[in-house]
Amino acid sequence: MLRASFVPPPWQRELRDLCRYRRTLVQERTREKQRAEKLLEDTQIKLSSVISGIFGTSGRAMLEALIAGQRNPAVLAELALGRMRGKKSVLQEALTGQFRDHHSYLLRMMCDRVDALTAQVETLTARIDEVLAPFAHQVAQLDEIPGVGKTGAQELIAEIGTDMTRFPTSGHLVSWARFAPRAKQSAGKSKPGTTGKGSPWIAGMLGEAATGAGRTKTFPGSRYHRLARRRGKQRALVATGRSILVITYHLLSDPGARFADLGPDWHDRIAPLRRKHQLIAELERLSGKKVTFQEDAA
Questions:
Q1: Which of 147, 170, 169 is nearest to 248 (CA)?
Q2: What is the pLDDT of residues 150-197, one digit of tens each?
Q3: Per the CB 3.0–4.6 Å rule, which of 23, 117, 149, 273 could disulfide with 29?
Q4: Residues 6+ apart with CB under 8 A from 245
Q5: pLDDT tens digits for 223-236?
Q6: Cα–chain center distance at 254
Q7: Is the CB of residue 293 less than 8 Å from the CB of residue 281?
Q8: Considering only 112-126, 178-192, 261-275, which range has the smallest mean pLDDT?
Q9: First-to-last CA distance in the chain?
């Protein structure tokens, strides 16, 4: 059983404050960027429909030109760099709107706010790197987990620490983090359970990591997609987050351990018969007919 009297050491408490504040600032920066995008949409400028990140190099150059008074869509589109230059005709259409000096005033403040938040985030990151200097090896271990990255590794250590001896098993860590669904039974029937309410900081970090893992061709990515098809994206995120926690536990428990991916086809390799049944069920669902599997006599 997890010792309820455990108190994180001073360095971990300080690290939590730094990482949590950094996450808060990143969230505020995201909201400010969304306000800027909404402001552009109000003027009929649909730049975000062409550029995924309007605060990237090309997008920011166009925003600064708009603020400076440039209103010609053709001139603005010429500011595109790299592959975006192949979309100049689409950019011209997206940059045609009713942008006025009033919007320029507000957009200037929003861009300055984004820059100020970015500077604060970078300052906090430098401080976090200093605090975690003695644990650079553990950060490198967790950085290798698909979807986690350096920032996620830092936040994981801030929340759960590096000493896994206080968790008898990986299941205890998962339960402590509230990523283990609780079974519900009523009248002899089992019902889907919830994980309960845990730390929003751990949940937020693991949710982002699971989403990132879902974009990779790895075992965690494969696990996410398999579960998303059957149980929905939300349950897949929780299950993948649980897998990341289990991996984290074993890595931090063994200083010499390194992440070794099982591969996206791991389930297919260990359970070919189960995979056959899954494919048959999928074919039946798509065709609406009963499918019978027969072994080749040869």
A1: 170
A2: 999 999 999 999 999 989 998 889 888 887 765 555 555 555 555 556
A3: 117
A4: 170, 173, 174, 177, 179, 206
A5: 888 888 888 888 88
A6: 26
A7: no
A8: 178-192
A9: 56
Question: Can you read off the two tokens belonging to residue 73?
Answer: 């869509």
Question: Same domain, yes or no, for 230 and 247?
Answer: yes
State whether 158 and 104 are in the same domain: no
Residue 119 falls inside a structural domain: yes
Structural tokens at position 241: 């987050």
CB neighbours of 54 closer than 8 A, spacing ≥ 6? 33, 36, 37, 40, 47, 48, 60, 62, 63
Q: Is residue 138 part of a domain?
A: no
* Model pLDDT, residue 227: 87
Q: What is the pLDDT of residue 189?
A: 57
The Cα 269–Cα 161 span in angstroms is 35
Report which of 170, 59, 157 is spatially closest to residue 107, judged by C-alpha positions: 59
How many domains does the structure of the chain reveal? 3
Can you tell me the mean pLDDT for 19-43?
96
Are 167 and 105 found together in one domain?
no
Q: Do 212 and 279 lie in a common domain?
A: no
273 and 259 inside one domain = no
Q: Which residues, other chains included, contact 259 with Cβ-Cβ below 8 Å and sequence gap of 6+?
A: 141, 144, 145, 247, 251
Same domain, 254 and 287: no
pTM of the full predicted structure?
Answer: 0.80
Question: Which residues form the domain of 274?
Answer: 266-298
258 with 296, same domain: the answer is: no
Question: Which pLDDT value is given to residue 286?
Answer: 83
As a dihedral over the C-alpha atoms of residue 22, residue 27, residue 31, residue 34, rounded to 10 degrees, the angle is 110
Once rounded to an integer, what is the mean pLDDT over residues 81-105? 91
Sheet strands (E) in the chain: 184-186, 189-191
Tell whether the model's pLDDT for residue 291 goes beyond 50: yes
Residue 274 and residue 228 in one domain: no
Higher pLDDT, 24 or 87: 24
